[in-house]
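Good day; I would like, with your permission, to put a structural problem before you. What I wish to show you is a protein chain and, alongside it, a tokenised description of its three-dimensional fold. I would ask you to consider whether the tokens describe a fold that such a sequence might reasonably adopt. You will find the record immediately after this paragraph:
***
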Amino acid sequence: MSTRADMTSDRTPSSTLDPLVAIADQFAHQGNITSVQAFGNGNINDTFLVALDDLDQTRFVLQRINTQIFRHPELVMQNMRILTEHVCDRLQRTPLDRRWETPRVLLTQDGQDHCSDDHGSFWRAISFIEGSESFDTMQEVAQAQEVGYALGMFHSLISDLPATKLADTLEGFHITPRYWQHYEQVLAQTNVSATPEVSYCLKFVSDRQALVHVLEDAKAQGKLPLRLMHGDPKINNVMFDITTGKAVSVVDLDTVKPGLVHYDIGDCLRSGCNPAGEETQQWEAVQFDTDLCQGILKGYLAIAKDFLTEPDYTYLYGSIRLIAFELGLRFLTDHLAGNVYFKVKYPEHNLARALVQFKLTESIESQATTLQNLISDLR
């Protein structure tokens, strides 16, 4: 295998490359770049898949961090390096009996975890989990159980990493009262066009104000401990082995920060138990699938039972209900504010997303007894 020094004469100088390829080249320690293509459907960062002609590393993920959202991207990278190094050390000391990988931070040629382009944009690269795939929705209980296992394994591997070791890179993220406060500010400053859909959303939110403080009050009262959370464990951030169908990784670690694992559990169930998906236009038909919920919780609790406390179980249903509502509130607020946070494909996109989440919340509420009995049985 050629080294970087061996290949110098064969490489195109970065100054003559396409700007995107030139950025990717900063992280390509061996091999030449053969393609850089848009990758995934994230709502925040710009993501690309870089292909190389190197046998040891054929692909990696290149991202331009949205610094309007992540205002301290260097702390995001610091968090990611601390977390991934901790997980890798855990896995070396206590190997699992199945495949499990964590994304690795790739360094530039001069040993940095990021680089900047001529416009000042912040770029980073992470390893690609080869032989894996992700899904936006799921239909099978066996797959749901693997999603639960993945989140449980992620929480388990970082359960001994003190929350104080990581910076809070998104202050207020997954703090539902903060979202409520922002919603009220935007509503007071906006001339709302009261279409039937908007009116439905406004009333839906108003009727559920009492939900907003349930988890934060429990944290303030010492019932729920501060731990490290993923922050965005929706199902398309779980990678599955293409051959075995088993979960092999949890990716998209930008939002890892101190918080409550209940936000993760609720978010995982919110995204995983809606077979219609977050982007469906048929919002009135959205349903929360309790069979998929049972599968996710069964997989999760099989791992997480070692670190969950009695009060943790008490607030599981509340977290399932709250996080669907919280995301709907965030989508609605962004729609009213003019679509300044989430990427949209058309002006009413965030309104449509809000309607999906509110319908999902309604479905969760209608099955409250079933869900509470399910949680009790799994304990």
User: Anything to note?
Assistant: DSSP finds 13 helices and eleven strands in the chain. Confidence is low (pLDDT under 50) at residues 1-16.
